[in-house]
Design a protein that fits this description.
The protein is an alpha/beta fold. A seven-stranded mixed beta sheet has the order 3-4-2-5-1-6-7. The protein binds cytidine-5'-diphosphate (CDP).
Amino acid sequence: MKDAIVIALDGPSASGKGTCGRYLAGKLGFRHVDTGAMYRTFTWYCLQSGIDLSHPARVLDFLRQWPAELEVSSDEVRLAVNGKVASPEILRSDDVANTVAKLSPIAGVRVWMVRTQRDCLRFGNLVMDGRDIGTHVFPETPFKFFLTASDEVRARRRKAEGSAENTAERDRRDSTRKVAPLEPARDAVVIDNSHESAAVTAEFMLAHFESKRRQLGL
Ligand code: CDP
């Protein structure tokens, strides 16, 4: 589907990407793609394989023969491995959280992910959230948002979700890596939502999207 619309939604951990992304996708009838879950899925299978993760060449060997495929369920596009999608508990586990930002900077891993994420277009219009969607995966889309919130607010949100992870180190790695660091695209609408609910942020994004879509005649 060549003319599909993509809403690119980037931001650091607990900035509200997932919640706002799903809300937007639901309202618009678009498919939602959580690209962090794709990196987490790969990390989980690498951990399971027992390969030495400090050697990028081993990680890339594993990636080449990894039996992963895209699938859609309840309007969510996900990676299934041998036909199975990893559970949220697995993807949010400490092991995965502590390892994902060490594998995500590997250039070959990102090439595979970007190609696979672009391939999601075959499922139609998308809301895709991540770290590099507006800058690297779909830099051509006119619909780009970058969500932020203060460190304190993000830490509080993580705690309220029941996560004990201190995400500061993961955020630091994501923002300072050489390949596709976390940063807003030049033409992204940057929203600091520290002091508003996800619903208010998502409604603002929806109104902004609709107005731009009309303006562009899409
Ligand atoms: O939920 P949270 O925002 O904490 O993280 P996530 O979106 O599940 O992403 C997990 C990790 O995957 C990030 O910390 C990045 O290292 C990596 N990632 C990335 O490099 N590029 C993306 N487009 C999405 C995630």
